[in-house]
Amino acid sequence: LLSHFSSIGFWGLVNNAGISTFGETGWLPMETYEKFADVNLLGSIRTTLAFLPLLRKYKGRIVFMSSIIAYFTLGNGIYSMTKAAIEKFCDALRLEMKKFGVQVCIIQPGNYAPSTKIQPPVSAEQIWSELSEEEKAVYNKEYVEERANFFNSILSEGSTNGNEVVDAMVDALTSPAPKARYMVAKLKEKALVFVCALFPTVVMDSVLSYALSK
């Protein structure tokens, strides 16, 4: 693979692979956590390491697909976990690659679920049927239904203009001066990130708890 690209040049890499699911921490088995870490985090790292020699040689660019959900979570903490991890990987990589002329960019989309289909609507019945007996003893079916309906309502509010994210990716690859981070999100979503980044954790917890209570 590397020998093939060495003859024609290799300049840009976009790490876009990702999967998402819904569920509170104890609802998901360890196998699911391992799968998400393997695809969303280690998959991007594997690809990056494979192409790093060529990217250094040609002073290329590496683009990673993160998410504003790296800053907070509303029912998909497993997805947030992987995106927060990839952000830190990128921060280290961006600094290390400066000396080689390689630029590293992160795309942080807001809710584009209707456009990407990364997260289909969740089924409360399926979630309940897959819960362990221990979890069923703690949570009742009505709670699971409430959480599922809440999450589905969030999904339905997502943007269908996926081209906005693609435009950011193109800019990251072609701009003479690309941004380190491209946040492509609605004003309400950016406000949540702002609160999360600048206010004490207790404030953000209160905001999210209020949202969940609704």
UniProtKB/TrEMBL annotation:
A Pfam family annotated for this UniProt entry: adh_short
Entry-linked InterPro entries: NAD(P)-bd_dom_sf, SDR_fam
Entry keyword annotation includes Amino-acid biosynthesis: no
Annotated keywords: Membrane, Transmembrane, Transmembrane helix
Organism superkingdom: Eukaryota
Bilayer-spanning residue ranges: 62-79, 191-212
SUPFAM superfamilies given in the database record: NAD(P)-binding Rossmann-fold domains
UniProt family annotation: Belongs to the short-chain dehydrogenases/reductases (SDR) family.
UniProt-listed PANTHER family: D-BETA-HYDROXYBUTYRATE DEHYDROGENASE, MITOCHONDRIAL (PTHR43313:SF43), SHORT-CHAIN DEHYDROGENASE/REDUCTASE FAMILY 9C (PTHR43313)
Name of the protein: BDH protein
Native source species: Lanius ludovicianus (Loggerhead shrike)
Gene that specifies this protein: Bdh1_2
